[in-house]
Design a protein that fits this description.
It is globular and about 40 Å long. It has one domain. Strand 6 and strand 7 form a beta hairpin. By secondary structure, it is α+β, with helices and mostly antiparallel strands.
Length: about 120
């Protein structure tokens, strides 16, 4: 069930605390369309950089918005995820850490969320 507020949620992974939130928006450039973004950051806020998994709507790729549940992303060939589930967030975080993201480094890291979706679906999220 989607949350009714937009406050960041808390996730603890391997002794490190993270804040995370899911946002839905609309792209003005690049042909328009919907976008859902999962943002994580090390706590306390400002202790490191931001990690954003960006899911842009496209052919065969759907992001939930007005007509479907918030936080749902789906690829016709790979499956679907609910970004409001802490288990899903943990799988995506672990994948980014395995690819070298360092939470203590300042700045923003943007990742194409679709590249992580098949592995997250396979992990049972």
């Amino acid at each position: 069930m989607p949350r009714k507020d937009s406050r960041a949620r808390r996730l603890v992974a391997d002794g490190c605390a993270y804040g995370w939130a899911v946002r839905h928006g609309h792209r003005v450039q690049a042909g328009g369309g919907c976008r859902t973004t999962l943002t994580l950051y090390a706590r306390p806020r400002g202790a490191g950089g931001l990690l954003r998994f960006v899911f842009d709507e496209g052919p065969g790729r759907y992001v939930a918005g007005f007509t479907a549940g918030s936080g749902e992303v789906a690829d016709v060939g790979a499956g679907a995820l609910n970004l409001h589930e802490p288990g899903t967030v943990r799988v995506l975080l672990d994948a980014a850490l395995a690819r070298g993201w360092q939470p203590q480094e300042r700045g923003e890291t943007r990742l194409d969320g679709w590249t992580f979706l098949p592995a997250a679906v396979a992990a049972g999220r």
